[in-house]
């Protein structure tokens, strides 16, 4: 029984950066409760967790699914194995701008692709990843974000985008400011125009902005 006073339950990363297996393709703001639950019930996919919650009577209106604007990097065990369930030996390198080990902002992902990394769209997981040598990076782009937003729209209260300062606020990668936010917006409000230019984001000021989008 869910208390009526409880708001939305955020559902973040299924596994943290300590995971050794590359099955984890959806990475959203790690929280231990979801990680432990997925291990306990043996489910390591977002669709499986959605069905688990709903099948056990959890109100769809209380589920808020996380969507990241950043990627998680890992160091592969072998340069010849980079696909589904490829093994990693450690957390990956830091991105060149934020310099946080294991994390690439959306802008840093774009830079990696321009510098020769190979993008692969995993048709099974419905999300892109890139690799270059032993670097392996799972992330969201506009295609996967829109697809997940549509899926979550029909299954839950919506999505929570985490977070705007790891997005591409000036459109350096795609020429569009906040491309992931705008891709999600088109799913929920196709005709609505939104300006994100009011945000002044920099490396020196860490703005944690939690944007919730509801049905």
From TrEMBL:
Protein name: E3.2.1.14
Domain GH18: 1-191
Keyword Acyltransferase: no
MF-aspect GO terms: chitin binding; endochitinase activity
InterPro entries: Chitinase_insertion_sf, GH, Glyco_hydro18_cat, Glycosyl_Hydrlase_18
SUPFAM superfamilies given in the database record: (Trans)glycosidases (SSF51445), Chitinase insertion domain (SSF54556)
A single Gene Ontology CC term: extracellular region
Coiled coil: none
Keywords noted in UniProt: Glycoprotein, Glycosidase, Hydrolase, Signal
Organism name: Acanthosepion pharaonis
Entry-linked PROSITE patterns: GH18_2
Lineage: Eukaryota, Metazoa, Spiralia, Lophotrochozoa, Mollusca
Entry EC number(s): 3.2.1.14
A GO biological process held by the record: carbohydrate metabolic process
UniProt keyword Aminoacyl-tRNA synthetase present: no
């Amino acid at each position: 029984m869910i208390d009526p006073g409880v708001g939305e339950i955020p559902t973040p990363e299924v596994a943290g950066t300590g995971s050794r297996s590359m099955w984890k393709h959806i990475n959203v703001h790690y929280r231990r409760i979801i990680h432990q639950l997925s291990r306990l019930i043996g489910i390591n996919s977002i669709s499986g967790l959605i069905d688990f919650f709903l099948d056990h009577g959890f109100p769809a209106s209380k589920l808020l699914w996380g969507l990241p604007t950043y990627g998680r990097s890992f160091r592969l065990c072998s340069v010849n194995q980079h696909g589904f369930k490829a093994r990693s030996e450690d957390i990956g390198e830091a991105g060149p701008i934020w310099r946080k080990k294991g994390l690439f902002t959306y802008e840093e992902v774009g830079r990696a692709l321009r510098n020769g990394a190979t993008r692969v769209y995993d048709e099974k997981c419905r999300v892109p990843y890139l690799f270059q040598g032993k670097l392996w990076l799972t992330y969201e782009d506009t295609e996967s974000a829109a697809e997940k937003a549509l899926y979550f729209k029909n299954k839950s209260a919506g999505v929570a985008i985490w977070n705007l300062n790891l997005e591409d606020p000036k459109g350096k990668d795609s020429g569009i400011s906040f491309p992931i936010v705008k891709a999600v917006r088109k799913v929920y409000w196709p005709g609505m125009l939104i300006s994100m230019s009011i945000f002044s984001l920099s490396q020196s000021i860490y703005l944690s902005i939690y944007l919730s989008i509801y049905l």
